[in-house]
């Protein structure tokens, strides 16, 4: 698209109503289906419990680092009861390299005690139950629900938060409010897919400092595109 035409489109974005925005999001999804046909969670896991622990550890830490730590951690602690009975200082040492290790170890132990005692060792599969666990907010809950249980959820990680603002899906900064805005725009069945696709787009194209707008497949659908 020519720059002047794009410039004209940007002006129209300012007056975009809800229905127009929904149509634009559908166009973005359609293009993402070709670019990111099968996006997935970047955390390694085999069970809902492993995913829950990994997601708690991923706060302010890269997925790559978490995967390095959990490779040994998941061999040492296999059940919620194992974590529930872990020594705080020992678990802190096990997860130290993920940062904020004291708070993370405490959250894992406390959460797993509840899971062990109240849910017979099985990670609950509802937003209400998950967010009652220590260290589990809506983002972590949606990661578990969407990837371990196949229950649609919008996962507002650092990439999704940045792109939701840039693409004009939400003007909010609070992750829970961004999630609410996106829930209104997207069909429920697309929630988990779009979260992962948007996150991958942020990793590969729409970088925080220097987004690659010229090579972006949705630049004509983005009010922040610079060509």
How would you characterize this protein structure?
With 227 residues, this protein is mainly alpha-helical. It is built from 12 helices and no strands. It is 59% helix and 0% strand.
CATH H-level homologous superfamily name of the largest domain: Helix-hairpin-Helix base-excision DNA repair enzymes (C-terminal)
User: What is the radius of gyration computed over CA atoms, rounded to a whole number of angstroms?
Assistant: 19 Å
Assign an overall shape: elongated
Major beta sheet, specifics? Answer: none
Strand runs, count: 0
The quaternary state of the protein chains shown equals single chain
Structure annotation, total helices: 12
Strand content: under 5%
Mean pLDDT: 94
- What is the CATH topology classification name of the largest domain? Endonuclease Iii, domain 2
Helix content: 55-70%
Query: What is the distance, rounded to the nearest whole angstrom, between the alpha carbons of the first and last residues?
Result: 9 Å
Element order: H for helix, E for strand: HHHHHHHHHHHH
Low-pLDDT sequence parts = 1-11
Tally of discrete structural domains: 2
Keywords:
single chain; 227 residues; mainly alpha; Endonuclease Iii, domain 2; Endonuclease III, domain 1; 12 helices; elongated
Offer a concise description of the structure:
59% of the residues lie in helices and 0% in strands. By secondary structure, it is mostly helical.
């Amino acid at each position: 698209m020519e720059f002047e035409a794009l410039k004209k489109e940007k002006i129209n974005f300012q007056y975009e109503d809800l229905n127009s925005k929904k149509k634009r999001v559908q166009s973005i999804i359609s293009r993402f289906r070709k670019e990111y046909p099968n996006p997935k969670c970047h955390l390694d896991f085999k069970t809902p419990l492993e995913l829950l622990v990994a997601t708690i550890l991923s706060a302010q830490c890269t997925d790559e680092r978490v995967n390095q730590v959990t490779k040994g951690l998941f061999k040492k602690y296999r059940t919620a009861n194992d974590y529930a009975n872990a020594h705080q200082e020992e678990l802190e040492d096990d997860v130290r390299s993920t940062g904020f290790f004291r708070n993370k170890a405490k959250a894992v132990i406390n959460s797993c005690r509840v899971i062990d005692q109240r849910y017979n060792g099985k990670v609950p599969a509802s937003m209400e139950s998950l967010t009652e666990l220590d260290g589990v907010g809506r983002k972590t809950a949606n990661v578990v629900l969407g990837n371990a249980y196949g229950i649609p959820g919008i996962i507002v990680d650092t990439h999704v938060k940045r792109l939701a603002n840039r693409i004009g899906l939400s003007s909010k900064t609070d992750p829970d409010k961004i999630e609410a805005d996106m829930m209104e725009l997207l069909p429920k069945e697309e929630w988990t897919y779009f979260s992962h696709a948007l996150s991958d787009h942020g990793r590969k194209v729409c970088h925080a400092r220097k987004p690659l707008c010229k090579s972006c497949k949705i630049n004509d659908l983005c009010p922040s595109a610079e060509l």
